[in-house]
What does this fold into?
Amino acid sequence: MKKVAYDGGGPYDCDVLVIGGGIVGLATAYALTRTAPGTRVTVLEKEPGPARHQTGRNSGVIHSGIYYRPGSLKARYAVGGAAEMIKFCAEYGLPHEVTGKLIVATERAELPRLHALVQRGRENGIPVRELGPAQITAYEPEVRGLAAIHVGTTGICDYGAVARHLAAASGAEIRYGAGGHVLRVDRRPERGVAVRTADGAIVRGRVLVNCAGLHCDAIARLTGDDPGMRIVPFRGEYFELARPELVRGLVYPVPDPAFPFLGVHLTRGIDGGVHVGPNAVPALAREGYDWSVVRPRELAGTLGWPGSWHIARRHWRYGA
It folds into this structure.
């Protein structure tokens, strides 16, 4: 590939510069090198290894896509992505299991919403089976409810292991630590981007892809864009079920349509343990995984943004 001068400072270091070494950034790098062989990709990740934040700290569920509006991008990507993730894990021997899940109605008011999920799931091409009270126990002997649906394509996997495999197999150059910690982005039309990292290096690329997760809004502003939004950090907290043998797979309530949450559920992990939760509490830092992590500048940014107070005014009763 022909090298092109960048602002008088030498050739491009790569064709595509990806910021973020979570599963989105690493999957982007993997896809680029597979679909366009010869493309030079560099991934910048400020941690000493991949998947140290959202990717390595989620529930591990491979969601089926049953909740999303039929025909929407969310529905299409969730349904297709679930199948691709299971196929990927099976092909490369990564820990995973297709457990299926129950969505259980325990009150009569939930029954119409449960039926609507059945219709939505079927329109999305997801295998859904309706269950009465006696049939629920065939899947989960310790679960009781008025009705339920069984979603056959839901599974679990180790997303950290997936990310590590993507990193190893992508063929991309991956810079970790100070060499992957972005401090400044210089973007000029028709001349690519130059990124300064914490170790003082400058990395030049033709194209930049922002996959920075919890910091994606800050990276967007470094490039000169204002996305008109902010990351407001919340943290989910779980209990660990003392008797994991009580739950075979995944058990969810019927979600409340007033909130963008799936409700408190039971999730069997790939390690055999069962989590109960989550709640959702404001975090005192973007990467604040417990109450001891406080970053005053990030907290001030959250409190100073009007959108945070809009959320608080709208949902304070539910939050309390």
Q: What stands out?
A: Residues 1-9 have pLDDT under 50 and may be disordered. The longest strand covers residues 202-210. Helices lie at 23-35, 73-92, 111-123, 133-139, 159-169, 216-222, 296-304, 306-319. The CA atoms of residues 133 and 146 lie 5 Å apart.
